[in-house]
């Protein structure tokens, strides 16, 4: 299965070509398992705001998927294909100071938000993390927003978090990344190009309870967690509300 087959001559959404979540792909649990590592910079004195970190992580996943090294015969392409052929896993770890500087020396891409910094790396085997990343902590990503989060702009894709779940910032970052990836898979080549040209503009917000009820039954892409950490298996965590996808409902 090609991870980035976009069928550029077609306006048909690419989900059937490169989504490991499509129904007929029933053997993904039997394939070798890979994980997409993300590292968020959290300095003691100036940690990023929670929403900024979540949005930056979601954008980082899209940046990795569209990097030329993840395409065709690029140096990351096989790892990305192997990852997408199995269960799509993402793990967010934190780093500061010297740890962050060491992480920057490994192949990957650093994505900047308003203040947040997230480095995304090509997928690695589930039990084959580089030592510089394996020693980083998963816990300790309990970030907060210093004040009210601004309303989203008109026409901006929004990744809506389930208001009934209590997730750490690291867990929520991974879930937002999943949602961005699901939306990406369902876009046409032209819609993908437009999103990329915008710098992958998006917002991450927690839905109001009544809004979540509407979103979760809307037919928009929804992330259901495998339940490896923090929350129960099958929990609906995020709905990806991209304007192009909503227009097709």
Q: Average pLDDT value?
A: 89
Give unreliable regions as ranges: 1-17, 19-26
Instruction: Classify the helix fraction into a percent range.
Output: 25-40%
Integer-rounded radius of gyration = 17 Å
DSSP strand count: 9
Strand content: 15-25%
- Kindly name the structural category: alpha+beta
Q: For the terminal residues, how far apart are their CA atoms?
A: 27 Å
Overall form = globular
The H-and-E topology, N to C, reads as HEHHEHEEEHEHHEHEEH
In DSSP terms (H or I, runs of 4 or more residues), the helix count works out at 9
Main β-sheet description: 5 strands, mixed
Description:
The protein is α+β, with helices and mostly antiparallel strands and 249 residues long. It contains nine helices and nine strands. The strands form two sheets. Strands 1, 2, 3, 4 and 5 form a five-stranded mixed sheet that branches. The chain has a four-stranded mixed sheet with strand order 7-6-9-8, sandwiched between helices. The longest helix is centred in the last third of the chain and has 18 residues, at 169-186. The chain is globular and about 45 Å long. It starts with 14 loop residues before the first helix and ends with a helix.
Short description:
The protein is of the alpha+beta class. It contains nine helices and nine strands.
């Amino acid at each position: 299965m090609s991870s980035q087959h976009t069928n550029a001559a077609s306006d048909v959404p690419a989900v059937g070509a490169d989504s490991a979540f499509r129904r007929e792909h029933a053997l993904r649990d039997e394939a070798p398992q890979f994980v997409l590592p993300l590292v968020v910079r959290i300095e003691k004195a100036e940690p990023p705001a929670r929403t900024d970190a979540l949005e930056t992580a979601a954008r980082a996943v899209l940046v990795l998927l569209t990097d030329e090294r993840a395409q065709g015969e690029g140096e990351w392409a096989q790892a990305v294909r192997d990852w997408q052929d199995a269960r799509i896993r993402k793990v967010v770890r934190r780093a500061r100071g010297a740890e962050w500087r060491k992480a920057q020396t490994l192949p990957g891409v650093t994505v900047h938000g308003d203040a947040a910094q997230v480095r995304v790396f090509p997928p690695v085997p589930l039990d084959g993390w580089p030592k510089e990343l394996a020693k980083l902590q998963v816990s300790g990503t309990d970030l907060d927003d210093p004040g009210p989060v601004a309303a989203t702009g008109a026409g901006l894709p929004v990744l809506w978090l389930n208001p009934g779940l209590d997730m750490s910032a690291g867990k929520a970052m991974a879930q937002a990344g999943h949602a961005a990836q699901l939306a990406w898979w369902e876009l046409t080549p032209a819609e993908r190009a437009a999103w990329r040209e915008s710098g992958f503009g998006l917002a991450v917000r927690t839905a109001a309870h009544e809004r979540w009820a509407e979103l979760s039954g809307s037919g928009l892409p929804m992330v259901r967690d495998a339940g490896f950490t923090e929350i129960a298996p099958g929990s609906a965590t995020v709905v990806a509300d991209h304007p192009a996808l909503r227009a097709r409902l």
